[in-house]
Specification:
12% of the residues lie in helices and 34% in strands. By secondary structure, the protein is mainly β. The N and C termini lie far apart (43 Å).
């Protein structure tokens, strides 16, 4: 099952409910990935070098679940993102920002940006990233963390920003492939699964969105 995480100021019922009310929360498909996501107008690439990204995030912007502050110039919003792997799960493959907006005809637009990833892979002309690969041994339901990264931290600025269009941004973190529960069951009970049954999975984390509203 999945997990829900709340960035509370302290481990009390009141503080946790306060975090939920302000939407400073994220979810995972099952692993305990740690995820930070901040938006603002002046995050810089060097901010991603900090070992305390939340300190910079709160000082210069707003956290996941919040609205971007009023724009002071014509710049595009910038974001600070930090993800840390679950120590008992797979390394991280990539971090993506998903942007959504409303078109003039009322339909929803969406675009996925690959903003940080492991290894020396390069984006193609369409912004697509080659697959990270897989180390899963289905027969033994094991894998190795010889690919991927234990953490990914980056600063990203929207290259397609239109200040007149409402938009939202959220983060998706993807792990390298690990054995799916079907692989564990096949190994445990010594059974052969049908060829159509998936035997690997990629655990993920999803942040709450950050919203942008035009000032006029």
């Amino acid at each position: 099952g999945g997990y829900a995480a709340a960035w509370a100021t302290e481990n009390t019922r009141e503080a946790i409910f306060d975090a939920i009310e302000r939407r400073e929360v994220y979810g995972t498909t099952g692993s305990r990935i740690t995820l930070r996501f901040f938006g603002g107008w002046d995050f810089a690439p060097e901010d991603a070098a900090s070992r305390l990204p939340a300190d910079i995030g709160y000082a210069k912007g707003v956290p996941m679940g919040a609205d971007l502050p009023a724009q002071t110039g014509g710049e595009a919003p910038s974001f600070l993102i930090a993800a840390l792997k679950d120590s008992y799960s797979g390394n991280l493959d990539r971090v993506q920002v998903i942007k959504g907006w409303l078109n003039d005809d009322g339909t929803r637009g969406e675009k996925v940006y690959n903003v940080a990833w492991s290894g020396d892979r390069q984006l193609d002309a369409d912004g697509k990233l080659p697959a990270v690969g897989s180390t899963v041994d289905v027969a033994t339901a094991t894998w190795t963390n010889s690919i991927g990264a234990p953490e990914l931290i980056t600063q990203w600025q929207d290259p397609d920003f239109d200040p007149s269009v409402r938009a939202f941004y959220y983060v998706r973190v993807i792990e390298i492939p690990t054995p799916r529960w079907t692989a564990y069951e096949a190994m445990r009970f010594n059974v052969q699964m049908d060829s159509e049954v998936p035997m690997t999975t990629t655990e993920r984390a999803y942040s709450s969105p950050i919203w942008y509203t035009p000032s006029n």
